[in-house]
Amino acid sequence: MVRVVKILVSLFQTNCYLVIHEETNEGFLIDPGDYADVILSAVEKEGVTLTGIYLTHGHLDHMRAVERIRLKYPVPVYAQSYELEVLENPEINLTRMFLRKDYVLTGVLPLADEREVCEAGIRMRVIHTPGHTKGGCCYYLFEEGILFSGDTLFYRSVGNTAFPGGSAAVLERSILERLYVLPENTVVYPGHGEPTDIGSEMRENPFVTADGGSSDW
User: Fold this and answer.
1) Please, what is the average pLDDT of the chain?
2) Beta-sheet strand order (sheet of 116-119)
3) What is the pLDDT of residue 136?
4) Exposed/middle/buried for residue 216 (C-beta within 10 Å: 0-12, 13-18, 19+)
5) Which residues pair with 125 in a beta bridge?
6) Which of 130, 175, 176, 180 is deepest in the core (most CB within 10 A)?
7) Is the pLDDT of residue 216 over 70?
8) 213 falls in which pLDDT band (50, 70, 90)?
9) Distance from C-alpha of 128 to C-alpha of 141, rounded to nearest angstrom
10) Range of 118's domain?
11) Rounded distance, CA 63 to CA 87, Å?
12) Using CA atoms, how far apart are residues 16 and 198, in angstroms rounded to an integer?
């Protein structure tokens, strides 16, 4: 029913995802971080009717292509409520640090924690997972057993907590209390790197294990 197309974007090797409802061929984007032409080409190649854009968080490598995509597809853009501050602050969204210029993204619609939405006929739940950023979140397609984890959880790793608004303790709690409670066979599509699943991360992630143990990071 749902097909996921990964599009590698930005100098940071960010995973942008095109999520497609196979019956209707409608779909939405998650984290269009850069290389708008590449993303638009993927949408056109798949013949998808784009209905929305969802951001897991507001760092530059997850949102920089939004404005150009909206020029062609004027669809709504969403992020977790607390992340609007990040998107609109060039110091926190890291454009000032990495681009040496200020860039902000406005006009983004807020999503509350635990809100359930239906986009392109696909149902998903917003899971607020602060720690990498204040309003970082994951999108859980509960009927499909799929989680888009952004920069919260990676294959055998976790998000960087050294940037403004980051906290290792908060991120660990987010993973333990919000993600490790999901079914173990949930497939995880992270913001960087290869897919994984909740069960193997609970057992083998050296940063946060299901028993609450963690390394000094």
Assistant:
1) 96
2) 116-119, 122-128, 137-141, 146-150, 187-190, 196-197
3) 98
4) exposed
5) 116, 140
6) 175
7) no
8) low
9) 14
10) 2-204
11) 8
12) 20
**For 82-197, where are the alpha helices, taking DSSP H only?**
84-87, 95-98, 168-174
User: What is the predicted pLDDT for the residue at 37?
Assistant: 98
| % of the chain with per-residue pLDDT over 70 | 97
- Cβ atoms of residues 113 and 107 within 8 Å: no
The b/e string for 24-36 (b: 16+ C-beta within 10 A; e otherwise) is: eebbbbbbbbbbb
Tokens representing 132 are 């990498």
The length of the chain in residues reads: 217
For residues 94 and 102, give the distance between their C-alpha atoms in angstroms, rounded to a whole number: 9
Residue with tokens 């055998």: 156
Domain annotation covers residue 158 = yes
pLDDT of residue 130: 98
CATH code of residue 115: 3.60.15.10
Residue 91 CA to residue 17 CA, distance in Å, equals 26
Q: What tokens were used for 147? A: 């989680």
Using DSSP bridges, classify how beta strands 116-119 and 122-128 pair: parallel, antiparallel or unpaired. Answer: antiparallel
